[in-house]
Structure prediction request, 416 residues.
Amino acid sequence: MEDYNLYPRQRTGKLMVFVFEGNKAKPISGATVTITGNNQNITLQTNAAGQTESVELPAQEPYSVYTVDVISNGYGHITIDGVQVFPNTSGIQEIQMTIQRGHYSRQQYTIPPHALTNPEPEKQPIDPLAIPDPKLDPQQTSPSRPDNGPIGLLIPEYVIVHCGAPKDHSAPNYRVKFTDYITKVACAEIFSSWHPEALKANILCIISYTLNKIFTQFYEGFDLTCLSQFDHTFNPRQTNFKEVIEVVDTIFNQYIKHPDPNKMQPFLAEYHRDVKPCRLAQYKSQELAKQGYKHQDILKYFYEKQSCYSSIKTANTAGVIFQGRPVSPLDQTLKEGSSGKDVREIQVYLNEINKQYTQIPELQADGQFGPATTNAVKVFQRIFIIPESGVVDIRTWYKMANLYYSILEYKKINGS
Prediction:
């Protein structure tokens, strides 16, 4: 890796830019990416996966900000200010572009400062024990919401995020992949440099809170707002961080069970920056993690040991929703030597993904997990920031399935 105007002993963080269409359904190769700020002026090109190389940049505590400028023939010109680079972390700035026909103008956006560097807004308190379960038909599952249908609580494919106050009907709604939403909220509200156990505890709160709001149908016409005075901070252009992505990808299908065993809804787990009764305290959670507390112990420390709730436990969801259908996750990890319909399914996924991400080799969909499938899985994992094991666990399976369905949706919308 090249050193771009770095001085000896200067603290640094890494940044990679990922440029694509439609929920990563089509990477944009050959885009010109310029990163400026803090005496840096770096020009890069995106590769066949729509990604630049990862560059090392000066980073002060708690973080430094940069401007990322992207120009691509046929897609236009996008500038994003406020891109965040934390010391000793790896950032990924995702930039979704759309085809521009004829004359196009420059689009400019600014990522707001990190939530932990701003005053904490007042939030209307909600008693999690007082929230009723919705009256749902136990014989049906909703096509877009997790519910208590025949196979249990489900992870939705998308969440609808309202970027305004709940009664502001002029504010825009964003349709966001569930894990993308969780990741961007976590990156906006938690320092990515924190201990992994603190990250897990905070992210479990975000997941459980999000699923509660969706499950109980708290709002009408959307699932959550993007404002922290009502829900969590969400910005569609928020810089992501590898350290957060790894946690979200690992625990996306986990949530905190409601302490009342008679309720099916996930626990509305709220946190605050500093210590408040019966809420996770973010800075304190980092202290506890550094003292050796595991994430389950951190949750119990705030919600159970302070005599707030009788029992705090985590659970796995029964499955996920893709294209309106409940889908059960893999029954077992797939690896070289495995065979059967699950292997054939991931081969079908990879062959469809290969049409956009051409570095992934085409496979014979024969249901046999041989060396060629191992290699294709490793290439997929390398592109999407998963340890290159060549093994398909639930993390790799979900990321693969998620992208596969995004590509099918993109093709349907664009008639290709």
